[in-house]
Design a protein that fits this description.
This protein is an alpha/beta fold and about 625 residues long. It is about 50% helix and about 10% strand. The chain has 20 helices and 13 strands. The strands form 3 sheets. It has an 8-stranded parallel beta barrel with strand order 3-4-7-8-9-10-12-13, surrounded by 5 helices. Helix 5 links the parallel strand 3 and strand 4. The longest helix is centred in the first third of the chain and has 59 residues. It is globular. It starts with a helix and ends with a helix.
Length: about 625
Amino acid sequence: MFTVSRVAARAAAVGASTPRPVSARAAQPFLASRANQYFRPIKQYQRNASSQSMAAAAGTRVRNFFYGTTLVLGLGVIYFYVTDTRASIHRWVVIPALRWAYKDPEEAHEVGNRALERLWTFGLYPRERGDPDQTADLAVEVFGQILRNPIGTSAGIDKHADIPDPLLAIGPAIIEIGGTTPQPQSGNDKPRVFRLSSQNALINRYGLNSEGADHIAQRLRHRVRHFAEACGFGHDAQGETLVLDGHAGVPPGSLTPGKLLAVNIAKNKATPEHDIEAVRKDYLYCAERLAPYADILVVNVSSPNTPGLRGLQKQESLTKILSSVVTAARSVQRTTKPAVMVKVSPDEDSEDQVNGICQAIWESDVDGIIVGNTTNRRPEPLPHLRNLTPMEEQHMLEAGGFSGPHLFEKTVSMVKKYKKLLGDSPPPSNNPSPPSRSSGAVNEIAQEVKDNLAGSPAGNAVQDSVQTGAIPPKNVAEKKDAEKQPLINLPTNKFYDKPRSEQDKLRSSPDGAESQQPPTAEQEKMRISQEESAAKQDRSTGEVKKSPDLARRDRPKVIFATGGITNGKQALEVLNAGASVAMVYTALVYGGVGTISRIKDEMRKELTNGREKKNKKRKKAKANVE
């Protein structure tokens, strides 16, 4: 019994452990519970991995944005810094690097000019930022134009009119391109430029290397037409005429408000200096081709590197040359005529030489003089600068014109001399003109007419006409306002007088050219007739009958100064001596594109200090009185 019961119990236990068949519906809850139990960690792991990946991607995007923004801002800061003329990198990095890389100064000069030309093309050129001249604290009037400042660049920096616009952008109010000769010439043999770095000076004997007047004129013409197209006038002869006649509201040479472009002209080396007629034709050839695109024509008779050129500064020959250039300049088919200046040497400094040059200036009726050029003399080294190296001592023996800060005292002295002789009315001439052409005779005739008019009172005009049968003349000065006509009808619809938004619309509008209507045929005919009458020439005497708006012989002559000017204090000193504009060359070579901005900043500082000193003295004097 015991055995049977134990076996039965065991069988019951075995039966309980044996799986029983179940249906699919009954098995679903069981399988689901087991799946949730075993696979829950895997799903949780997958969810965590996905979140980490998304977080990493978001972090990458943030880092990329941060790096990109930093890069853009960094490049922007570098762009604004490098393209600012006040950046010290131009003076202390760029210039030393050029001198180190190119031992030949002429090659370094050419590389620098090409770099400026390329940078201008891509809009990366250095410029004077902030428009410091807008306060007009340095403004000066020259030839009827209000210049933004009294600083200019001398000829030689841009010999072939490659970079007039980049030069204007670095701050000067006047740039002088050239010298330009009638026919192309290569100049003297190389090497022909020598550095005296310890003294911040140069010696050059370029010999007026030039591409020729026709080539330079073509380059300037293309520049004007490109500007005309930007103004909506069209890239053709008609657009060029509109710009040259002032319809764009800018000077026809510089194409920049408040600035002027001067073109330096000279004779060819092959033209014999003793043949004055041939020399005159050389200058006339240059003037006729370049005057339309210049605000100022500069007659160069002072280069020391062209044989016989300085001999042309004698009074008789200089008068003939200048008279021809003046005639050509005032015959230009343009509303405004270019001024004419003559550039003289600092070596012709005797009293007789200076008097002869001034007499030629008065007789030829040029508008001004540029005092200074390179010198054939070799000044002593300046004590506050470094001593000459052995190589530089060898360079001092080279032929050519010397330029540098050593010439400053000489420049100031020469400016004072010429200011004394050209700043007032002309001296009495030893060879007066014929009575029919003299200003004295004209004044006598005018006085006689006035006397005759005074003898016929207006109240008895009718009675006199009845008794004598003659009608009394009508005084021209008594014309009614409606009868008066201006000599030149200046344009009233100027492009640059419009708001900036309207200028942009005219540039972008396809019919922008139509908004500036060209002059009619009748107006053009009237303009040409006026210009021809204003520039009539007596073939027998070679004199010019000038209209009232042109320069008069008794008007004081404008003086520019060049030679040794390196800082703002010196610029102010030469201006106070009588010059209207201070021009730089060698200082720009050693100081880089920021030289003009630095000189103007120093001028403003000097002027401010001067005013403060005067105010202190005035207050002190007032306190003493009280």
